[in-house]
Description:
- The complex is a heterodimer.
- Helices cover 27% and strands 46% of the residues of chain A.
- Chain A is α+β, with helices and mostly antiparallel strands.
- Mean pLDDT of chain B is 86; it is low at 29-40.
Amino acid sequence: xxxxxxxxxxxxxxxxxxxxxxxxxxxxxxxxxxxxxxxxxxxxxxxxxxxxxxxxxxxxxxxxxxxxxxxxxxxxxxxxxxx
Amino acid sequence: xxxxxxxxxxxxxxxxxxxxxxxxxxxxxxxxxxxxxxxxxxxxxxxxxxxxxxxxxxxxxxxxxxxxxxxxxxxxxxxxxxxxxxxxxxxxxxxxxxxxxxxxxxxxxxxxxxxxxxxxxxxxxxxxxxxxxxxxxxxxxxxxxxxxxxxxxxxxxxxxxxxxxxxxxxxxxxxxxxxxxxxxxxxxxxxxxxxxxxxxxxxxxxxxxxxxxxxxxxxxxxxxxxxxxxxxxxxxxxxxxxxxxxxxxxx
Lengths: 83, 251
């Protein structure tokens, strides 16, 4: 598991939290430093081919989806500001 | 067809995710730099296997959840009444929630250090301020805290049926160092030297012996503590020392 870029922050429930991107087996994983726990999330694929955010280990699906969306938003905002 | 986190994925994707999960467990255990290390959360615990002849390291939810909390939706109310990250060693057998786990579900919580707040009222301040400290064992990269665990399955609306382990760290009276740091509650985690840690996992201990181990006080002379930045949770290295001019040194 290799670090894949610098730590960045997102705002979750009004608090800034740190996110460290990693790569492992050609997939992107994100270690999330919540105030009360560390969570690793990544994108997986449903049967119909659509992507979804999920937690690893299992058990934090809703949280993974919520934070995953914040990461998606962060990257899309970042991209928009480049143009 | 398989489910990962309750969502249908292909068998191949499922196998890949499960393999990754297995692979990254070691990483999660060894690289916890983003974990704040105080209260709540998921954390590695050591559980005995096969009558304590062998052990396993598992990530578990840091908050002991008893059977009477049946679903995630009830957690908010539960937390208003109970704080179950810590279990007072002296009272393990007085508690209906913890007694059974103390007798039959003891674990160790692996730690490299922990955080605690020291209260101090600087000159001129209207009220005491809280100063976070990092506490560690200078001669041990990792050490063991006594814990008790409980299996828990969410039976709520969006339950996946996954069985998770939940745990509480056992606490004892503060030693002389921790009495200065955690000076409001005068408590500390029950840190066990290796021989006592192994004993803690053994089946068949008497209540008296469990009580003795649960209230063991690690020597202050083998622990160190220093102040850290109040924003340590946002720092790359949360354990970095930060000296406050107004704060007297620990003795």
